[in-house]
Each structure stands twice: as structure tokens, then as C-alpha cells.
Amino acid sequence: MSAEQKNILVIGGGISGITVALEAAEAGYEVTLLEKSPSLGGRVAQLNLYFPKLCPPFCGLEINYRRLRSNPKIKIHTLAEVTRITGEPKNYTATVELKPRLVNEKCTACDACVAACPKERPNPFNYGLDQTKAIYLPHEMALPMRYVIDSEVCPGVSCGQCLSACKYQAIDLMMKPQTIELKAGAVVYATGWKPYPAEKIDNLGFGKIPNVITNVIMERLAAANGPTQGKILRPSDLKPVSSVAFVQCAGSRDENHLAYCSSVCCLASLKQASYVRSQYPEAKLYMFYIDLRALGRMEDFLEKIKAETGLELIKGKVAKVSEEAGTGRVTVEAEEVLAGRKRRETVDLVVLATGMMPELGANPPLPAVRDEFGFLVARNGGPGAAGTAKRPADVANSIQDATGAALKAIQTLVSPV
Ligand SMILES: Cc1cc2nc3c(=O)[nH]c(=O)nc-3n(C[C@H](O)[C@H](O)[C@H](O)COP(=O)(O)OP(=O)(O)OC[C@H]3O[C@@H](n4cnc5c(N)ncnc54)[C@H](O)[C@@H]3O)c2cc1C
Ligand code: SF4
Ligand code: SF4
Fold first, then answer.
1. Domain extents for the chain?
2. Which of the ligands is closest to the CA of residue 154?
3. Residue 164, ligand 2, Cβ within 6 A
């Protein structure tokens, strides 16, 4: 078997892709890990804390980064997108476009260039809630720990103000895109998920009412490296909150939006209730839900958070969310099933628990079987798939699934046919 045929190509550098890469490389196989953004980590890096232990996501990521750095069998390309894959199992050829970072490996992450840069851009890491300069570090735990320039807003050499600020000759505004070809015996998609666009849910007010946010935005508001330095504040006036309502299944289990349950949103909202409680001991907390989903040992987490936060659970699908005139407060209305009455609560902040949908677009470089919702179905003889590219899942289940996907990829390389 040639060296190329023992290579596994992993597309997506979130926790699932990182796990596939590590498990396969530690079993002795060569791996190329491709990430389209400037850093590994995926959406886990954007969480404030993660359940069930409520530890910062960077703890887990750092351990994995160390394993990645110390394994010579893994090659990593960031800013990398596969445009085409030809061939068949054991013998694929992938064409990969590498976008120019415009910052080379001499970068020490000293941050001096940022003050010199006059251009700003919305910060996708904080879901556009704040800005970065055109030259920026994706986040504090980026891998590689290197700045990057957004070429869509940077005018290039006609500006060049960062060049003189950088003592290390790390900025190269003439860096060009590259196209490379990679051989691989197996391909695994670990392309992850994206949040359902909440503005599509007409009756819940996102995008129209400033103090209606989504669960992913709540993660960034609560994070010390987020737009409010970790303080949970009303977006309309940056005032502290005295009451918060979580609206579960926002667009989920709804034929008009996502017909399925994303399985982690209930636990995510419970976790976020604990964020609010730790900052506001007196705040009133409500959760409107259809069914609470907490499988297996997550039931213990649910009971613990309920007891610790004093969260009031209200069984009922929210029919309407509206803004109170002149106060910025938000009224949530639902039919309370257990009490058999209408329930209205007016609060400072509403958090929509929106679901997860597949990030992979309709025309992937190597065709793959999809389910009715666009999640990947891994089949023998086709590309592999790992983690939330296959279904909504938490980190622990994504890691388990990715370990299985690594084994499947190895089987593709070593099977006799
Ligand atoms: C509000 C909320 C809170 C959550 N909180 C928790 C929690 O507390 N605990 C927990 O266990 N789970 C939590 N989760 C779930 C957790 O976010 C996922 O389990 C985790 O992100 C899955 O990792 P992944 O690698 O499968 O996908 P992702 O994190 O989405 O990573 C996929 C990676 O692939 C890259 N990529 C995508 N397409 C391409 C492409 N074509 N080419 C190259 N790269 C590509 C992306 O840029 C990304 O880096 C939460 C989810 C939500 C919605
Ligand atoms: S590009 Fe230069 S100035 Fe900017 S962080 Fe890197 S080393 Fe520092
Ligand atoms: S050249 Fe680009 S990155 Fe450098 S200072 Fe100007 S706008 Fe910023």
C-alpha cells in the first residue's frame, strides 16, 4: 500500500474533526485535517461553559491541541476549502483552495498591528455583536496562534499601516491564494452545524425586537471574551437584567422550520439559566417548553440546575413575543398546558433556543448520502461522516461518534476490496 493510500482526509476542524484526526493518527495513519476558517475549534470555542461539567471549552480543546501538535502524522491546513474530489475509496484526489492569511509563521501574536489598522469588520466569533480590525486574532485559543487579515475589508498595499507596526516582518500583503492537490484513501466529513436563522420565525421577534436574542448569542454575552466581557446585559441599552425567559424549540419540531429536535437546546438553556443566576441572584427565570429533553445521565444535570436556579418551568408552546411600548421589555405569551390557561410574562430579555442545522452545503465536493434534513448518512463505499455533520449532538456524543468514524475510515484503507 502506498503512503498516499494510507492518508485520511478530514474536512472540518471542530471537536469532531479533531477527534477523527487524533484517533486515526494515534492508530498509525497519516491524516490531513482541513478547516475553512482561520482556526481550529469549531463552535465549541464559542461556548462560554459546556455541560455537563460547566467547564470552559478551552480546557478540552487545549488537551486536544497538545495531542495534535505532538503528532507528526497530522497535517493541518486552515483557510482551506475542498473544491473537488475525484476517485474512489482507497484512491481519492482532492483539490483544495488555500486562502491567503496575509500573516506568516513569524507572527508572535503580539497584537501591535491591531492599533495601527484603520479598518473594522463585524466579528463572526461574537455573531456580529462587536467588531474586530481587518487584522485580528480569531480567538484567544486559536490554533494556529496567528493573526489573519480579512481581505474583504483590507485594501492591501494601498493602506499597509500594519506593516510598520509589526516588528517581526510577519505581515505579507502580497501572499497569494494557492491550490493544492491531496491524495487520500478515505474522506471524512466533520463539517458540523450552524444555528437555524431565527429571523425566519415570524412570531418570536428576533431581528425586530432588540431584547430577543438566540441561545448562541447568549453564550457570547456570558463569555469573558465576548462583546460585553461576560456581563449579561440587555442589548437595547446595555442595562442589567432582572428577568429572563427562555423559549424552547424556537423553530424546532415545527414543519415550517426544523421538523426535528436538536437534542441539546434544553440542556443549553438550563446551563444558560445558571449563567444568569450566577450574575443576578434575584432575577426571575422562566422556561417555556413543549417537552424537556435530557437523555441518559443528563437527567441529573437537569435536576441539579432546576434546584440551583429556581427556574420556573412552564409547559406550553409560545404563540407570540412582542415588545412593550417604551420600556424595551418583552412579553411572552403561551397556552400553559398543565394549568389550562393563558400565560403572559413580561421580561427584560428573551432567549430563543434555536436548533442546529447542517453546515455542509447542497453540493459537497464528494457526493454523500443525506437524510431528509440534510444531515449526512455514512455508508460503506462512500465518504465517512462524524459528529454534528450527521445529527445534532453534544460534545461527548460528537467525540464518541468521531472515534467510530476514525475506525470506519481506517477500515476503508485496510479492507481487501
Ligand atoms: C446554544 C448551544 C449550546 C451548546 N452547549 C453545549 C454544551 O454546553 N455542552 C456540549 O457538550 N455541547 C453543547 N452544544 C453542542 C456543541 O456545540 C456541538 O456538540 C459541537 O459544536 C459539535 O462539534 P462538531 O465538530 O461536530 O461541529 P462544529 O463545532 O460545527 O465544527 C465544525 C467545523 O468544520 C468547519 N467546516 C464546516 N464546513 C467546512 C468545509 N466545507 N471545509 C472545511 N471546514 C469546514 C467549521 O468551520 C467548524 O470549524 C451546544 C449547542 C448549542 C446550539
Ligand atoms: S502580525 Fe506582527 S504585529 Fe501583528 S500580532 Fe503578529 S507579530 Fe504582532
Ligand atoms: S493593510 Fe489591511 S490589515 Fe494592514 S492596517 Fe491596512 S487595513 Fe489593516
1. 4-99+177-192+359-414, 112-154, 197-356
2. 3
3. no
What is the DSSP track for 347-410?
A: ESEEEEEE-EEE-S-SS-SS--EE-TTS-EE--TTS-EE-GGGTS---HHHHHHHHHHHHHHHH
Q: Whose CA is nearest to atom 2 of ligand 2?
A: 166
Neighbours of 229 (CB within 10 A): 10
Cell numbers at 397, concatenated: 456524543
Distance (Å) from CA 11 to ligand 3 centroid:
30
- What is residue 13's predicted lDDT score, i.e. its pLDDT? 98
Instruction: Report helix, strand or coil for 100.
Output: coil
The amino acid occupying position 233 is: L
pLDDT in tens, 286-328: 999 988 877 666 678 888 888 888 899 999 999 999 999 999 9
Mean pLDDT across 269-277? 95
Tell which atom from ligand 2 comes closest to the C-alpha of 108. Answer: 7
To test ligand 3's pocket by mutation, which of 150, 159, 164, 175 has the most ligand atoms within 8 angstroms of CB? Answer: 159
List the residue whose alpha carbon is closest to atom 5 of ligand 3.
Answer: 117
Query: What pLDDT is recorded for position 244?
Result: 98
Residue with cell 497538545: 66
Q: Is the pTM above the cut of 0.85?
A: yes
Domain 197-356 adopts which CATH fold?
FAD/NAD(P)-binding domain (3.50.50)
Cβ of 334 below 6 Å from ligand 1: no
What does the pLDDT read at residue 300? 82
Q: What is the pLDDT of residue 1?
A: 46
| Whether CATH 2.60.40.1120 fits 4-99+177-192+359-414 | no
Query: Quick one: which atom of ligand 1 is closest to the CA of 50?
Result: 8
CB neighbour class for 292 (10 Å; exposed up to 12, middle 13-18, buried from 19):
middle
175-179, 208-212, 303-307, 319-323: which range is least confident on average?
303-307
